[in-house]
């Protein structure tokens, strides 16, 4: 059993290890690729003293890809934390709210209806789709919750919207083979080919969502204790839920629009972070910000090395995340016996 003195030390050690892992995968993400680089070449590129080809690889390809991976991992992980608290469902992730399908629908409309071909063009439609669907999901669930349990209603409304929008997406794509070919490369979830404009476009939405999540930490702690307890502590449940839902929509929409619907990050990372630092949301969110990018960038790095031509990060996240989640669940059951 941890004493009052050892618990802060353990938490500090966890954060130190997570930060070290994040730095390591960030550096490797810049160094590893079809043309491996050494740290000296990267430093020379950053200071403008490298060969033009190396400078282009670092500044136009590796750095934006790494930044997108950092933002996507942090956004999906924190969105998962918020969703699990909002729905009181340990198996909830951002897709349960319908915003992932909303972002995908926005991308499909951009590709198939508007004829957009650049990720930096249709990424904005993905963010807009996530916000619209997130708003609809929230208001429908709020209206229905007057006669039903709010967490269950959120989950049911989100699942219904996700299924309906997925059907609409494939109905559109089956009539346009060319759009389907373009969509399927985005839908597997990848960081490849993300240029600086993608990173710059998504950063404000993700950073704003992360800031909202940190500001809501105390309200989320109260919400996790139940509605009656939260009201007794003086928290405004409607405002907390609305702000949390907005943060989920912003972070998930931006992440999905930029990198595709990468699975398991929003499901696995909150479980792992909760096991390491406990249920309090401030350290939980902070650790999720570190561990989410570690998973996404780690999967991306492995994908570059194990498969000729590169395996998408979304595929590797699923391959890594599924057994990790099973191990966490089995360990939790063993400790509870």
Automatic annotation (TrEMBL):
InterPro entries: ABC_BtuC-like (IPR037294), ABC_transptr_permease_BtuC (IPR000522). Gene3D superfamilies: ABC transporter involved in vitamin B12 uptake, BtuC (1.10.3470.10). The keyword Transport applies. This is FecCD family ABC transporter permease. Pfam families: FecCD. Keywords: Cell membrane, Membrane, Transmembrane, Transmembrane helix, Transport. The chain crosses the membrane at residues 12-34, 66-84, 96-116, 122-141, 153-173, 201-221, 242-264, 284-302, 314-332. Its main location: membrane. It is a multi-pass membrane protein. It comes from Salininema proteolyticum. It is found in: Cell membrane. Belongs to the binding-protein-dependent transport system permease family. FecCD subfamily.
């Amino acid at each position: 059993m941890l004493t009052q003195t050892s618990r802060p030390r353990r938490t500090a050690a966890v954060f130190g290890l997570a930060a070290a892992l994040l730095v390591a995968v960030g550096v490797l993400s810049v160094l590893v690729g079809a043309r491996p680089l050494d740290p000296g070449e990267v430093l020379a590129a950053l200071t403008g003293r490298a060969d033009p080809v190396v400078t282009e690889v670092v500044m136009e390809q590796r750095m934006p890809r790494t930044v997108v991976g950092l933002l996507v991992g942090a956004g999906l992980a924190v969105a998962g934390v918020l969703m699990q608290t909002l729905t009181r469902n340990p198996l909830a992730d951002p897709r349960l709210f319908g915003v992932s399908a909303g972002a995908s629908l926005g991308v499909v409309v951009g590709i198939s209806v508007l004829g957009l071909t650049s990720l930096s063009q249709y990424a904005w439609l993905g963010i807009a789709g996530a916000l619209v669907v997130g708003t609809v999901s929230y208001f429908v669930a709020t209206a229905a919750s007057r006669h039903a349990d709010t967490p269950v209603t959120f989950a049911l409304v989100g699942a219904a919207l996700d299924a309906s929008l997925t059907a609409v997406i494939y109905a559109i794509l089956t009539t346009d083979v060319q759009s389907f070919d373009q969509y399927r490369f985005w839908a597997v979830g990848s960081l490849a080919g993300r240029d600086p404009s993608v990173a710059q476009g998504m950063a404000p939405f993700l950073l704003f969502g992360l800031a909202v999540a940190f500001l809501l930490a105390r309200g989320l702690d109260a919400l996790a204790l139940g509605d009656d307890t939260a009201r007794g502590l003086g928290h405004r449940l409607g405002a907390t839920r609305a702000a949390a839902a907005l943060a989920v929509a912003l972070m998930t929409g931006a992440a999905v629009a930029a990198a595709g619907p990468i699975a398991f990050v929003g499901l696995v990372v909150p479980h792992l972070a909760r096991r390491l630092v406990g249920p309090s949301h401030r350290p939980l969110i902070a650790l999720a910000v570190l561990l989410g990018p570690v998973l996404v960038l780690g999967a991306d790095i492995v994908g570059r090395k194990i498969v000729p031509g590169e395996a998408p990060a979304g595929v590797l996240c699923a391959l890594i995340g599924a057994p990790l989640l099973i191990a966490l669940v089995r360990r939790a059951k063993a400790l509870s016996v």
